[in-house]
Amino acid sequence: MLWFGFAIALAVDRVWLDMLWNWVQTLPAMAEIIVWVLFLPFMVGLWIWESSWPGLVRLLASAGIVVWTILVVTSFLRAVR
Prior knowledge:
By secondary structure, the chain is mainly alpha-helical. The chain is 86% helix and 0% strand. Helix 4 packs antiparallel against helix 5.
């Protein structure tokens, strides 16, 4: 669901991603660490998007994180069954 929201923010208004990134950065250190741990793949995608890398590289890196997340979740669900 988070990746779906990420894609919507990219398509509709990229300022939403900037606002989310700035909000996380203003949290107290302990709260920021908790957010990073709980939402690690999403936060890495957000960090990649906020980096100064060229647009194509950011897009490919973000897509790689999304694919990695999907692979991890599906393999976890297969292991649980």
